[in-house]
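User: Show me sequence and structure for the first protein, then do the same for the second.

Assistant: Starting with the first protein.
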Amino acid sequence: MQITSMLSAGYLEPMPNVSRVQKLNDYEKETDQSKQQKEQEILAEEQAIKAKLGGDAQVHTVYHYTMGTDGRRYITGASVSMKGSEEDLNRVGGGLATEDMESRQREITDALKKDSEKTEKNQTIIKAEDEKRKAEEKKDKAEDEKDSQVRELKQIQNEVIAHEAAHQAAAGDLGGGVSYTYTQGPDGKRYITGGEVPIRFKEGATPEETLRNMQKVQAAANAPADPSGQDMKVAAKAAALAAQARNEISQEREESSEHTEIVARGTPIIEAVKREDEQQDPEKNGVMSILATVKELQIMSLIPAA
């Protein structure tokens, strides 16, 4: 009598009421090394079955694989199909009847199915957790970038406020009110990112006053520790107007010096005439006084010379 039976690798040897297929296929918790060891055990048990059946029986084995973390497929289960005499099959199965062996095969199939479902469920959980972790990492990275941008905007705001305050303090009455430009940050708040202070180029009533004003404008433009390009242009214009005022002051001083020199030349002549008059004979003082007066008037161009 020929009998065909399907046996799991976990049932190649009789075990009372214990399914070894779960032990053979619990690969989710095993390392690659344990998978390799399990593979060797299954292959050894397969060889033992073939040895027990003898040469007349036919054996066909279907292996069940599990992918290791090293990328290799390991044998973690096997289904053995045996065709032979009832005596041979009972010898391999430890005296199990054919019907009992089929029942055990159904149990094995159910166990394998449950194990497969469990594996799929675990893989789904692992995938969901991995996606959640990646989402959290992405969120943390976005938060870090947001915080970095906010810190940078706050620093720019402090620098702009200090910059314009320096302009205002140095400009005094020549400066106007500060006006700011704003940028909205990633946190929804507005931050100062630019500003300006108007400075008047006021011409004075005198060159000296103009010079003082231009020096004040130049100082106001250069007041911040980090003058901008526009600040340097204002300072250069104020320096040019200050140089022009200095030239005007210098010319006025030269003109004033020439006038003083002319007066100085005339003064000694008048004093010399007076000293000459004082040395005349007392009897002629009256006439000489008149002559001295006439000479003095002539010198001062009040009367024509004789």
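Switching to the second protein now.
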Amino acid sequence: MKKRLRKGSFTVEASFIIPLLLMVIAGLICLCLYLHDRSVLASCAAELAGKGANQKYKSEAEIKDWLTGEAQGLAAGRLLALKKYVVSVEVTKGSVVVTYTGNTGLLGGLEICEREEAKRLNPVTFIRGTQQLKQLLER
């Protein structure tokens, strides 16, 4: 009689533990999807900021329009959990800032906001400045 009671106690214990384990595993999977999408958006923002900073002979409005179009296509097929996101691009004379923001439905609605900035450098001005500095030091 005791052996049958012991077998039944394992079933009762498993009925409490297995749902808890399944919830923990589901939570870890959702967290992995969130972190994946966040890293994809961070790399997309960094890539676009760098591309925009390298555009030397375009106006700020042209760069902004071009980067906004590129931003939608760059992240489109690479996201797993995030379906809707907003891209904002700010281009000034000295820098390019790309920001991705969005909301996931995972774990109660996690927010993603990735922002990357790149300085716009003019290599001609930089080289001329270093040459002038070199000439001053030689005197």
